[in-house]
Amino acid sequence: MKININPVLRKEAKTTVRTWRIGVLIAIYVGVLSSVAVITFGTFLKNMAYGGARYEELPTLYMAIESLQLVLILFIVPSLSASAISGERERQTLDILLSTKMSPLSIVTGKLVASLSKVVLLIISTIPVFSLVFLFGGVSVMHIFQITIFYLVTALYVGSISIFISTFFKSSRVSNVVVYAVGLFLTLGTLFITFIYFQYINLKYVSIGQSTLQNFSAPFYLYLNPLWGYISLVSNQIGSGGGIPGIRTVSQYANTWIINCIVEVIMSVILIFLSAWKLNPIKRYNKKRMSKI
């Protein structure tokens, strides 16, 4: 039985496996996470030896590993995806690729899956690092499963944004800069805007003797922010408070991270189809034809 594999994905997979870069990338990625885990775990053991066991500090090890992994994913995925289409333009191979029997959607999905396959490999390779937490308990297998699903959805979301932006630029450098700028706005920018907005509303209500802590609801645009879903997920897993100053707790929204994942998946699908529409050579031909009339 012959399995049909996307030609772009097959080509990208072959070229990736034959290079030494993927091995070095995995070694550095796992090495960084392992170093943080060992340092944090060593500090816990040292404190336990001199001051007694404080098992309430165990979630710190778990949070250190998963927080660093999320940051690495947010930085690595754009570097792998932002030049997917713009790189083809630079090499002047995009028109050749579009002249094949492959549809623009197949090209986009092939490029995206090829980029995400490296990220999935990185995520899977770091799962054993979390086994350090299992030595003393405090984190279940379900927690690891949830955070892994969240990483995969976040990688898909960030990769779709990168591919979409890559279709607009001819230079990979410009595409990378724009992708990182958009990512910075979606993560830290939206949180900062929400913090300023909340402070404004809080001052308004305090001036009339009321409090907004019980009534403040998160703006919907925060569900486009992976950090918002991450704060909710960590809060639900280890019972910590909210990570945004002024908001009493995020764990009151029990399904915030699930809603965040659903919104990101929907946006990823929309961005993938928009990227394919942008690459459609028939659309470009009609646009040039109309401009000459």
Report on this model:
With 293 residues, the protein is mainly α. The chain is 71% helix and 0% strand. It contains eleven helices and no strands. It is globular, with a radius of gyration of 22 Å. The termini are far apart.
Give the uncertain stretches in residue-range form.
Answer: 241-254
- Describe the global form: globular
Tally of strands: 0
What is Rg?
Answer: 22 Å
- Overall pLDDT score: 78
Quaternary: single chain
Total number of helical segments? 11
Q: Percent of residues in beta strands?
A: under 5%
Topology:
Layout: H1 7-17, H2 21-51, H3 58-81, H4 86-90, H5 94-98, H6 104-125, H7 141-166, H8 172-206, H9 226-238, H10 256-279, H11 281-292
Helix pairs in contact: 1-6, 2-3, 2-6, 3-6, 3-7, 3-8, 6-7, 6-10, 7-8, 7-9, 7-10, 9-10
